[in-house]
């Protein structure tokens, strides 16, 4: 179909203008002459309509979305084919995409960003309850209508791609700016993948930009696999610790640390919204509409936050002082974030069980004189990496680290890490022999030390390993322009 503007499909839909185009189809604004209303008309590209698999995915999108009746999902009205040109008819949403909104205005008001995340999450929750994973959650696929409501669209890759990876058959499955680590690695994709992608969308709404940039889509995807997202509070200090914590859990690399379901994510977002509006003293924009529709128990919590906020702030400050005092005297590790300590016990290690690791292209050692400070139980002393010109180790090597020798193969389930200098990123590997380079290790976890202490859970499927490597991939830059990382204490847990 070369020239379509002004033509009719099925004698009913008059095509008026092009709205946008993608790899599989073009979307037009059209007029339904039967019901006398504007519609959005998605027409499959003629050069791929002969591909049986692509045609089935296109048709499946119509069938799938037609089953989703939700105020925050763009509704399917009709579907058909005219002279070999398959099409889907959607409701016409007057407005703009969420991506356009962020590009124009930059970071959104905090409560409004949370409100949009709730609306998107509710739509995806309904899809998940019907066994449907979107797989391409991004602000380009969220429309903001004239009333300010968010509506999710483009379920085109939602089904039928089981077992296909990021670049299967030359296609990118999911936009890499928002792709989940497991999707980037070609692993099974579940509702938790949509949770991660929505977390990245929320990060962009709060900061005005995506967390990672690179020379190619693949390089960005690998950053989602290997690097923790930047600290949202550093990019936008007015973001509360409560919201930062929810965002951190939504974008956790490890599935065990991420929200189990979209429903759980939305529930916490609702509670954060009540707190954010109580803190601001008012709700504006779409936050008002979302708050008015919250469940009764959450609405009561909003009023409770407003009444008890001054007391809560006092308690939080007092608790922070108490925690700081405990940490200083070395009596507790309550600064640990992200770990479930229930059922975990410390695996005893000898004083000589820690080793520095700097394989080629490194020189074979990384401050070996200090390595014992990371296993002496004294959190006031620390092993430090050497100083580098840039946080990415001066572009000299991919990383450096420390590994623990358990003395025998054991099943460890977590590593507790303490640092006096937050902001560096890491990966955790296991092995039964110390290999000459990183290729011989097995990756089990990754993250970022964005606090003084963190428990990092991992799953080795019951396999025993003797050696556990903390591999540091990105350093913290100091005020002098030099970069390094520090480890005050490591505790292996099983």
Structural account:
This protein is an alpha+beta fold. The protein contains 11 helices and 22 strands. The chain has helices at 52-66, 98-105, 110-129, 181-184, 191-207, 217-226, 232-235, 241-250, 262-280, 286-292, 296-328, and strands at residues 8-9, 13-21, 25-32, 37-44, 76-82, 85-91, 95-97, 142-145, 150-152, 336-337, 354-357, 383-384, 400-410, 414-418, 424-431, 442-449, 453-457, 465-474, 476-477, 483-484, 486-487, 489-493. The strands form 6 sheets. Strands 1-2-3-4-6-5 form a 6-stranded antiparallel beta sheet, covered by helices on one side. Strand 8 (142-145) and strand 9 (150-152) form a beta hairpin. Helix 3 packs antiparallel against helix 9 (262-280).
Distance separating the two termini: 62 Å
Largest sheet, strands/sense/barrel? 6 strands, antiparallel
Oligomeric form of this entry? single chain
Question: In order across it, which strands form the biggest sheet?
Answer: 1-2-3-4-6-5
Provide a count of the helices. 11
Helix content percent band? 25-40%
Class of the largest domain in CATH? Mainly Alpha
Q: Gyration radius, to the nearest Å?
A: 25 Å
Structure classification: alpha+beta
**Can you tell me the CATH topology of the largest domain?**
Transferase(Phosphotransferase), domain 1
- How many structural domains can be distinguished in the coordinates? 4
Record field, number of beta strands:
22
Strand content: 15-25%
List keywords for this structure.
single chain, 494 residues, alpha+beta, Phosphorylase Kinase, domain 1, 4 domains, five-stranded antiparallel sheet
């Amino acid at each position: 179909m070369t020239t379509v503007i002004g033509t009719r499909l099925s004698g009913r839909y008059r095509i008026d203008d092009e709205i946008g185009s993608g790899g599989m189809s073009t979307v037009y604004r059209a007029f339904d002459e039967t019901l006398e209303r504007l519609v959005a008309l998605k027409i499959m590209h003629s050069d791929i309509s002969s591909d049986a698999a692509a045609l089935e995915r296109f048709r499946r999108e119509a069938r799938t979305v037609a089953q989703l009746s939700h105020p925050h999902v763009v509704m399917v009205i009709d579907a058909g084919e005219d002279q070999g040109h398959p099409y889907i008819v959607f409701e016409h949403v007057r407005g703009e995409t969420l991506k356009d909104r962020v590009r124009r205005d930059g970071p959104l008001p905090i409560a409004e960003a949370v409100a949009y995340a709730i609306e998107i999450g509710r739509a995806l929750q309904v899809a998940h309850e019907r066994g449907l994973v979107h797989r391409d959650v991004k602000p380009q696929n969220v429309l903001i209508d004239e009333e300010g409501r968010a509506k999710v669209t483009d379920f085109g890759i939602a089904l039928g791609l089981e077992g296909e990876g990021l670049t299967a058959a030359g296609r990118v499955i999911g936009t890499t700016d928002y792709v989940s680590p497991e999707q980037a690695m070609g692993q099974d994709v579940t509702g938790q993948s949509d949770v991660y992608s929505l977390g990245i969308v929320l990060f962009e709404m709060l900061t005005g930009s995506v967390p990672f940039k690179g020379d190619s889509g693949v390089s960005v995807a690998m950053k989602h696999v290997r690097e923790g997202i930047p600290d949202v509070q550093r990019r936008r200090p007015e973001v509360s610790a409560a919201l930062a914590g929810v965002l951190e859990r939504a974008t956790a690399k490890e599935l065990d640390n991420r929200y189990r379901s979209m429903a759980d994510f939305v529930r916490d977002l609702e509670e954060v919204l009540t707190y954010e509006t109580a803190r601001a003293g008012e709700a504006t924009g779409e936050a008002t509409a979302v708050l008015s529709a919250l469940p009764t128990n959450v609405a009561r919590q909003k009023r409770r936050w407003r009444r008890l906020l001054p007391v809560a702030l006092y308690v939080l400050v007092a608790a922070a002082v108490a925690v700081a005092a405990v940490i200083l005297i070395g009596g507790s590790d309550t600064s640990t974030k992200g770990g479930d300590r229930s059922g975990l016990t410390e695996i005893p290690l000898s004083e000589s069980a820690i080793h520095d690791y700097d394989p080629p292209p490194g020189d074979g050692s990384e401050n070996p004189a200090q390595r014992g400070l990371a296993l002496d139980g004294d959190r006031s002393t620390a092993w430090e990496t050497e100083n580098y010109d840039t946080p990415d180790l001066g572009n000299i090597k991919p990383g450096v680290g420390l590994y623990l020798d358990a003395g025998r193969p054991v099943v460890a389930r977590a590593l507790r890490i303490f640092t006096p200098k937050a902001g560096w990123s890491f990966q955790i590997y296991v092995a039964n022999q110390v290999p000459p380079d990183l290729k011989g290790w097995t990756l089990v976890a990754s993250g970022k030390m964005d606090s003084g202490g963190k428990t990092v859970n991992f799953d080795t499927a019951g396999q025993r390993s003797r050696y556990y490597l903390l591999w540091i991939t990105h350093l913290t830059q100091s005020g002098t322009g030099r970069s390094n990382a520090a480890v005050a204490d490591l505790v292996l847990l099983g």
